[in-house]
Amino acid sequence: MKSVLITDSRDIVTGLRLAGVKGIYCKNKEELKKNLLNTASDKNVGIIILTRGVEAKIEDEILQVKKQKMPLVVTIPDLKNDLEDDFILKYIKDSIG
Question: Is 58 exposed, middle or buried (0-12, 13-18, 19+ CB in 10 A)?
C-alpha cells in the first residue's frame, strides 16, 4: 500500500516527494474534493495525508472518506497556519482517537 499527500502547498509536495511520498498539488477547493475522492477509491492507497489548511476547506468530504475502512486519513501541519504549542499531542490524539 502507498501513501499519498493532497495539499495546496507546493513546498510540502516537494518536501514529501523527497521522502518518497507521492504528492498531489491542488489549486482550489474543487480540485481538493475531486482528488480526495479519487484517491480514496484507489485500492492501492493505504494512507492519505492532508495538510491542516486543506482539512478546513473540505471537512465534509474528509468525514465521508474517514467512514470507510480504508484508507487512513491523517492531517499534518502546513506552512500557512501557526503551530500550536502542543500540536504534537493534539496530532497524536486526533490520529489515534
Answer: buried
What is the pTM for the complete model shown? 0.80
Quote the cell numbers at residue 81: 497556519
Q: Check: CB of residue 50 under 8 Å from CB of residue 62.
A: yes
Amino acid identity of 4? V
Helical segments of 1-97, H only: 10-18, 29-40, 52-57, 59-66, 87-96
For residue 77, say if its preceding peptide bond is cis, omega within 30 degrees of 0: no
- Give the torsion through C-alpha atoms of 77, 83, 85, 86, to 10 deg: -20
Cell of 40: 480514496
DSSP 8-state symbol, 53: H
- Taking each helix axis from N to C end, the angle separating 29-40 and 59-66, rounded to the nearest 10 degrees, works out to 0
Residues 53-88 have pLDDT tens digits of: 888 899 899 988 988 888 999 988 877 765 556 666
How far apart are alpha carbons 43 and 49 in whole angstroms? 16
